[in-house]
UniProtKB/TrEMBL annotation:
It comes from the Eukaryota. Residues 196-230 are annotated as: Disordered. Residues 206-226 have a biased composition (Polar residues). It comes from Aspergillus clavatus (strain ATCC 1007 / CBS 513.65 / DSM 816 / NCTC 3887 / NRRL 1 / QM 1276 / 107). GO terms for molecular function: catalytic activity. This is Aminodeoxychorismate lyase.
Length: 278
């Protein structure tokens, strides 16, 4: 079982715990036709992976010992969904929600239009979904020290902002991701995504298609490397799309295919870029 990142004294500065997710009107029908038996939401609501977002926020509140926030987040899933429904301006359109909870259990929800996308991208990668152009995936040039602020998603994101600026990523719409690296050279996560790499065998080389192994083809960094316990990561592990394996910067191969995921975009392809073109 993965161990928690080392505990650090928490500053008195104000910060909140957050989780971002997609409201997708087409999601209930996609679940019904393609994932009814394995999708982890008994409500099959338009809120993508809603139970995992609620549980993620609750785990963060418990870590920071925010008793009032814990009490708010322990409400049943149906009530939580109804609470979020009140922030949706138009239930026929997709939206990006940013749930923000403070230490006193006060919850605000920022809602912005979400870019249209193929709803099947919210499910695990399969042959049913149309192909899409891969994102460029680069490696941060400086290490990040694991802490509760890398294990849990909060508004204290200076490390992630700095990593993106070092990689010349200026907009969330840029099809580029930067991999966050701990002082031991292990990949922790992406700045806004969970990465998945082809499973490594002996010699740290990607294995084939996994047909001769009981292990999944794909791996994602373990929480012991210091990264975030993301919602799509949890979904991918629960459905055995991937397993956990520590991946170092030296294990990566220029031009290697990978997958990325988050609670707003679902799953989408990436391509490792070690050497930038001259």
């Amino acid at each position: 079982m993965a161990s928690d990142p080392p505990s650090l004294p928490l500053p008195e500065e104000t910060f909140q715990i957050i989780s971002s997710l997609r409201y997708e009107p087409a999601l209930p029908e996609v679940i019904k036709t393609s994932a009814a038996e394995c999708y982890p939401d008994s409500l099959q609501s338009p809120f993508y992976l809603l139970p995992y977002h609620q549980q993620r926020l609750l785990s963060a509140a418990e870590c920071f010992k925010w008793t009032e926030a814990v009490a708010f987040l322990q409400q049943d899933l149906k009530s939580f969904a109804q609470f979020l429904d009140g922030f949706i301006p138009d239930q026929t359109k997709p939206w990006r929600l940013r749930i923000v909870v403070d230490r006193h259990g006060r919850c605000t929800v920022d809602v912005n239009p979400a870019m249209p996308m193929e709803p099947l991208s919210l499910l695990l990668p399969s042959d049913k979904r149309p192909p899409s152009d891969p994102w460029r995936v680069v490696v941060d040039s400086q290490p990040t020290i694991p802490s509760p602020f890398t294990r849990y998603k909060t508004t204290s994101r200076n490390n992630y902002t700095a990593a993106r600026l070092r990689s010349n990523i200026t907009s969330p719409q840029d099809p580029v991701e930067v991999l966050i690296v701990n002082p031991n050279g292990q990949i922790m996560e992406g700045s806004i995504t969970t990465p998945y790499f082809r499973r490594r065998g002996h010699g740290s080389q990607p294995e084939g298609n996994g047909q001769n192994s009981s292990e999944p083809t794909w791996v994602t960094p373990p929480l012991s490397s210091g990264g975030n316990a993301g919602t799509t990561r949890r979904y991918a592990l629960a459905q055995r799309f991937c397993s956990e394996q520590a991946i170092t910067v030296g294990d990566l191969i220029d031009g290697e295919e990978c997958w990325l995921s988050n609670g707003v975009r679902g799953f989408f392809p990436g391509k490792i870029v070690i050497s930038e073109p001259k």
